[in-house]
Amino acid sequence: MRDVSLNPIRPAATEAFQLDDPALIALASGTMRLLVAPHVGGSIAAYYEAAATGPVHWLRPATEAALAARDPLRMGSFPLLPYCNRIRDARFEFDGRTVDLAGDGNLFAHALHGHAWRRAWRVGARTASSVELHFDHEPDPHAPGDWPFRYRAMQRIELAGDALRVTLSAHNLAERPMPFGMGHHPYYPRTASTRVHAQVQGMWHADGEVLPTHLGPHPAVDAMREGMAADAFDLDNNFAGWSRSATIAWPDEGRQLTLTAQAPFDHLVVFAPASEALLCVEPVTNTTDCFNADDTRDHVGGCVLMPDEQIAATVHWTPQRV
């Protein structure tokens, strides 16, 4: 196995892949390319190698139609905060109050993925291979379902050699404690040969509305240890006891992408539906509906940020030829 970032001989690159959107930020490192869409929820639109034979995509690339629709769900990856995945009925109790998120423009039955992915992010410092994106939330007491805590978030998105590195951070600017979770939602190219490798200890089983019911064994837990086919199960589930490393492999193409994450990205979501050729392997800090869970924080993740408290963690995606 060799890391592509260590390969001193590179083919002549071609710029065959183009997305015609002037708001995109283009980053480069060697033959690696990254397109960032701050106006589409602070998303990554594409991460690929500009190889002599054409672009090699490590994340599923956005399309012109996805950019025109400003649809984060059709980007390469997008940030999740101030919580990950669903909150049952879009409400929870916290610090003696009901937090009701219904009516904030989220069109799902249960509040989904927070709100920052549905807002534009502000562009900060830039270099040829990196960009900082900023998101400031000031709650509007007159807006239905608005997140009632003031906070600031930042993404530092960069190419470190051939690897993609994203650092997410948040700062509680409210005068009271704030419940919080974060993650990133990457989509990967999915083919008949795609495999997912990860060390996990258990799976959160879910009901028909993709809300967790219990933590327990599942054949996918053992399958991922050996390299689970993306087509093996119908999955939209959280996995516990994750080692904070996972690899998405395309053995027929002789390549793989390894995801590594810092704490508190201690939970993993695998979305591999039977009905669509989609694949997400997501580093997150909390399980679905963690704010309503009866389990301990150690089991469901998430945290409470005290006034003026900050949190930051980094995720890497490292491509390899095998």
From TrEMBL:
Alphabetized InterPro entries for the sequence: Aldose_1/G6P_1-epimerase, Gal_mutarotase_sf_dom, GH-type_carb-bd
Q: Which GO terms describe its biological process?
A: carbohydrate metabolic process
Any one GO molecular-function label of the UniProt entry: isomerase activity
What Pfam families does the annotation carry? Aldose_epim
Q: What is this protein called?
A: Aldose 1-epimerase
